Amino acid sequence: MASRAMNVVRTSATSTANAQVTFHDEVVKLIDVSKCIGCKACQTACLEWNDQVLDIGEFTGSYQVPSDLTPSMFTLMRFNEWENPKTGELEWLIRKDGCMHCADPGCLAACPAPGAIVQYDNGIVDFVAENCIGCGYCVKGCPFNIPRISAEPAKAHKCTLCSDRVAVGEGPACAKACPTEAIVFGTKPDMLKHAAGRLTDLKSRGFDNAGLYNPDGVSGTHVMYVLPHADQPELYSDLPRDPRISPWVRTWKGATKTYTSLAAMAVFVVGAFVHHVGTGANRVSSEDEEKGRRVIEGRD
Amino acid sequence: MPADSSGASTVKRHPLDVRVAHWVAAVSFILLGLSGLGLFTPGLFFLTALFGGGETARWLHPWLGLALALSYLVLFIRFIGSCLWAQEDTTWMSHLSDAMSGREEKLPEIGKFNPGQKLYFWGMALLIVVLLVTGVVIWQAYFSTLTTIETQRMAVLIHSIAAVLAILGFIVHIHMVTWEPGTLRAMINGTVTGGWAWKHHRKWLRQVTGTKH
Ligand code: HEM
Ligand code: SF4
């Protein structure tokens, strides 16, 4: 069930609920990639708090375990080893992957099930399992490849930004577990201020291209990254440079396609009816029957 | 000479396998349309209640798709010979308004299927192939890792447009059955009256009775 402690501003497959999105006391989880030591305490805390158990996986030769997000693993430390051509040094780029809680969420736009995805007025985007039908449309809607669908029952899963904790005034479990404060959580103005301080620090240490990742293409996100190499987001395990809801999804979900289709079907039904009434049924006459009989009897 | 209860002469039109395949296709198509439209737009989500809810509709839909594809394959094999374009079909098409007004005296004698039916046959065959391929691509439970997400985005758009086109064709198809009384029985007991065959498919009547013209 959607939390009652936070106000819903947008609901999947529902046109009535607050078309005009106004966020109140927006929250942000800020992930400072430069401070992360790759210990994965956040991953463990996430499993713990959400009561998830991972299947035994396979070692793929990387610290990245499991190798991808799964229906139980809502956050994943993605590891990339990169040789910086300018310094000739090896950099270990570790990014905490997971739902970005977009202000303009592609999953919510794509979802066909009323109430399966909600967006709260603090910016958190949450999946509501009881309304989810397991179709996987959210996977197609998401510009970050985040939702994962479980097998039995088929339900979509992703980071909730610990909406259950936030609703009672706590921060997310991952932020609480992080030993280096690479993950911090708070109101958007506070987090932007914190990020600015971090960027000043990074720049003073030679990271000229350090920047905040809060992409405009999805109207900003409620999970943001401080990136030492913000000019090359792809370095961080393919973080998209300019994420936006795919034009295919926009067309698929667009009013033009929907209403043209519905109108065409209505026109055809009405047209068939008018044709029938207008011309009258094309009946076989007794004369036809007689002629048909003669052919069958071989007389014609 | 075979005759029905009203005394009209009858001609055999569709054998049992064709009729069974046709009804499997018809029923699965209707259920596919209803379950698919339930996911098409929020305003039609209520349609999924016919299946016991969104989860069941979502789960059932692709399996029905396979039933449709298989039954249509049978129809395809059995009908293709009668659905090739014939010379008189072009003449018939140029008199489409006569055909639509039921002035069949102005039309050439037509074989087992008229050009409209042939176009429906080929159109549906094409659309079902498109729906099958795109449907498998977006079948989350089994094939979500088969293609990239970007491919799936295109596939779901193409699938929903192809579905709408197929439904438009289906509406016309159903309409024609009611507009030409005596047609439905061809798919029930497999026969039509001699008069029906004479009126709508005279060339075919002559072929099956072996009478020359
Ligand atoms: C031929 C085999 C078919 C297959 C394998 C197939 C499969 C699928 C799948 C996997 C979905 C996504 C939802 C779900 O998982 O249930 C879907 C959606 C849909 N299908 Fe099909 N389908 C087929 C045929 C059809 C036909 C014949 C129609 C129309 C009569 C149809 C209409 C739709 C519609 C309208 C949607 C929703 C698209 C949207 O969200 O905009 N499908 N189909
Ligand atoms: S799988 Fe995703 S898109 Fe489908 S109903 Fe569930 S939340 Fe909505």
Task: Give an account of the 3D structure.
The complex is a heterodimer of chains A (300) and B (213). Chain A is α+β, with helices and mostly antiparallel strands. Chain A has one domain (1-245): Alpha-Beta Plaits. Chain A contains nine helices and eleven strands. Chain A has helices spanning 41-49, 106-110, 137-141, 163-166, 173-177, 188-204, 247-253, 255-279, 286-296; strands at 8-11, 27-32, 76-83, 90-97, 117-120, 125-127, 148-149, 156-157, 183-187, 211-213, 223-227. The longest helix of chain A is centred in the C-terminal third of the chain and has 25 residues, at 255-279. At the A-B interface, helix 3, helix 7, helix 8 and helix 9 of A face helix 1, helix 2, helix 7, helix 8 and helix 9 of B. Bound molecules: protoporphyrin IX containing FE and iron/sulfur cluster (SF4). Residues 29, 32-33, 36-37, 39-40, 58, 61-62, 65, 68-69, 128, 131-132, 135-136, 138-140, 156, 159-160, 163, 166-167 of chain B line the site of protoporphyrin IX containing FE.
Helical content band of chain B: 55-70%
Judging by the overall fold, what is the CATH architecture of chain A?
2-Layer Sandwich
Number of domains of chain A: 1
What portion of the residues of chain A fall into strands of 2 or more residues?
A: 15-25%
CATH topological fold name of the domain at 16-158 in chain B: Fumarate Reductase Cytochrome B subunit
CATH superfamily of the domain at 16-158 in chain B: Transmembrane di-heme cytochromes, Chain C
Tell me the series of helices and strands of chain A, N- to C-terminal: EEHEEHEEHEEHHEHEEHHH
Task: Determine the number of helices of chain B (DSSP H or I, runs of at least 4 residues).
Answer: 9
On the 0 to 100 scale, the average pLDDT of chain B is 95
Strand-and-helix sequence of chain B, N→C? EHHHHHHHEHH
Main sheet strand line-up of chain B: 1-2
